[in-house]
Amino acid sequence: MKTIISTETETWPIRNAFTLSRGSKSEAVVVVCRIARDGRTGFGECVPYARYGESVESVLAEISAVMPLIEEGGGRTEIMQAMKPGAARNAVDCALWDLEAKISDVPVHRLICATPPRPVPTCVTISLDDPQEMAQHARANALRPLLKVKLGGKLDEDIIHAVSAAAPDARLILDANESWTEDNIHDLMMAAAQARVMLIEQPLPAGQDEILEHIPHPVPICADESVHVTADLERLRERYDAVNIKLDKTGGLTEALAMRERAHEIGFSVMVGCMVATSLSMAPALLLAQEAQYVDLDGPLLLARDRPYGLHYSAVVVSPPDRRLWG
């Protein structure tokens, strides 16, 4: 039966403005890939990210370029070779995983999870704002076990203390999004250590993080913008303690699984993260997160609404996906 591939761009309003060191946005723009074969349709979602040189137009063009390959029956192996890592390949790869599961009637989790998937704790993000406003948001989420705090370089020490005081029982992850410098990293890391922070994510700009090899890590440091695929891991061994694996960086679940395995082999802790997107983006990542030390998959909680059959979030955990959504 003929294979048909199509794409669609969707816009999802964000509940409140989402702000990090690079700016603020009020909506999430995603590209959805659909691949239909043998009366079944697989779905994959990605988020084009300007920080990595992507746009909606570039993602649509990359997917369009491989449509003939997919229509001729090309699968995940061929796509891994034909497409570069990034958002476009993620949408195609995840759509192919979903399609294969539907055609074979074998859930994806049976192929990639050692045990049946379980609910896992996830971070809840406190968007960048002034310290008092962030403390108020932290106080409203103080019963959640894990908060991820966006930082921006300015007033970060005040933010760390304000959020820590507002949510004294929550564990904290700080996400600097490349906004710290060699001049302030020592003081900010000490402030983080005093505030029971459990992880600091990407403090320095990618490519300007060599200093991390030569300074103490009173709090473990996690690479995000500095790491995209498995091949990046080796050069970061002396700089970071953990790596953030995102499907939109790896170019899909296929590469992400290989990256998680190799990261653990060489001693990294693993975070599974996300962009701001719907549950369709989170579903494959949640299966990947079954063997991760940190989980940051709260993207749908930031939206004003989610897809039908979206992931279920409680105050503590996010549950595995309904197969009507994905997988």
Report a brief summary of the structure:
The chain is of the alpha/beta class. The protein contains ten helices and 13 strands.
Q: What are its keywords?
A:
2 domains, about 325 residues, Enolase-like, domain 1, three-stranded antiparallel sheet, alpha/beta, 10 helices, TIM Barrel
Name of the CATH first level of the largest domain:
Alpha Beta
Distance between the termini: 21 Å
Strand content: 15-25%
Q: Strand arrangement, largest sheet? A: 5-6-7-8-9-10-11-12
- The CATH topology of the largest domain turns out to be TIM Barrel
**What is the SS-derived class?**
alpha/beta
Range of helix content = 25-40%
- The domain count comes to 2
* Main β sheet profile: 8 strands, parallel
Compute the average pLDDT.
Answer: 95
Low-pLDDT residue intervals, each spanning 5 or more residues: none
CATH architecture of the largest domain: Alpha-Beta Barrel
Element order, helices and strands? EEEHHHHEEHEHEHEEEHHEHEE
Q: What is the tally of beta strands? A: 13
Spatial shape: globular
> What is the count of helical runs?
10
